[in-house]
Each structure stands twice: as structure tokens, then as C-alpha cells.
# Entry
Amino acid sequence: MHWILLRGLTREQAHWGEFPQLLADAFPGQKFHPVDLPGTGVHFNDPCPDSIGAIREKVRHSVRHIPGPYSLLALSMGGMVALDWAQHAAEGEIQNLVLINTSSGFSAPWRRMKPGAWPRIARLLSRRELFHREADILRLSCNGPVSLDTMKHWYRIQRQRPVSFRNAYAQLKAAAAFRPQPDRPVPDALLLASRGDRIVHWKCSEVLEQRWQWTLKVHPTAGHDLPLDDPEWIVRQMESWLPR
# Structure
């Protein structure tokens, strides 16, 4: 089985850190492919569309060399792209769907982006000094301690493959406007949410659970970047859910 891993707003595959290798060790025989959204990572020089549907098509095109069917594991805005992909996929194209701290137009705007996060994000976007900006992003998205090495790693990513203001704005516009289709795309999906998320309210995942009778697991303390705060917890939830 080939898994496609998608990250969130203005983040790229390098931001996963050691998480893909952790997954590969936990699930031998399955292949995990971190894939960049348009405007980030290997595509940082390319323009990003301003709708989730158009971003989804760019992602599908970029993985055409990977044989299907696919399983999708996606965080935040990447979860919107994954959900939209599942809703537009051919029958059997998507085998498993794992969405982490994502949101959609089914939830109220003040839950999709907590009011307290807005001023902090505005300040982050206005910061010119890259190291401190990336460090502040980590402090906002993680509840656990963040090492200096991780801060330096994220700084190097932004120095090497900077996300332009235009692409960041296009992604933000796409995420804000995203509303899924009403029909359930797969019989079950694993929804992972963080009760301590200071950016997206965990009840955005609960809305999807209640609408489509999917499986929801809530971490009691982690922040928005659950794969950084507690990657082993994600693996345990997947180990329990996948044999279904």
C-alpha cells in the first residue's frame, strides 16, 4: 500500500521531520510518500492555485508515477486536500483516510481558526527575521517543548525553499473557502484531533465524525502539530484502527 502524506498551510515535506520513518518502521511493507503542496517544497517556485479543488488536482498529478490505490494521511490544510481528493476519487482509488487536526466549511469560522490565533498569525506574517518567525510558528503549533535543532531545521527549510507571500495567500484563501460535498466519501476514516490545539478547535473533527459516523480519537494535551508533539500516539491510533 502506498501512503501519500500531506502537510498544512505553507509547510512542506521536510517539516514532517522523522515522522515518515517512524511510520515506515511501524508498518513494514507499506510505503510512505511525503508530497508537497503546490507553492511549497520542490514546487516552491510554482504558483499555487487558490482553491482546494485545483490544489488537489496538482497533487494528484504530482503522484501519478506512484501506483495506486492510495491511502492518505494529512494534517490541517493537507487534510482538506485529502478529503476533497477522496470525494472526487474513482471507486477504490482511496483505501484509507487519516485526517489530523483538519477543518472544513461544516464548522463555524471561529472554530476553524480560533479567535486567539488571529493576532498571533498576523504578527508572524509581518516578521521579517526568519529564524524567530519559524520559532514562533513552532511555539504556536506545538504544546510540547521544541528543541533548538528543530527551530534551526525549520529556519533552513524556509531559507532554502521560501514560500512566497502570494502562495501563502492563495493557500489561505483556498483553506478558508473549503466546503466538502455532502456525501460521505469512504465508509470510515480516522480523525485525529488535539484538545490542546490553539489554532483549530478539535470539534471541527467532531463535526466530521458526527456527520459521517467516522472514527474520532482526541489527544488530551497535544497542539496543532500533533505529528511533532506526539508522533507515537498517532502510530498507536493507526495500529488500532487499520485492522478494521
Summary: The chain has one domain: 2-241. The mean pLDDT is 94. DSSP finds eleven helices and six strands in the chain.
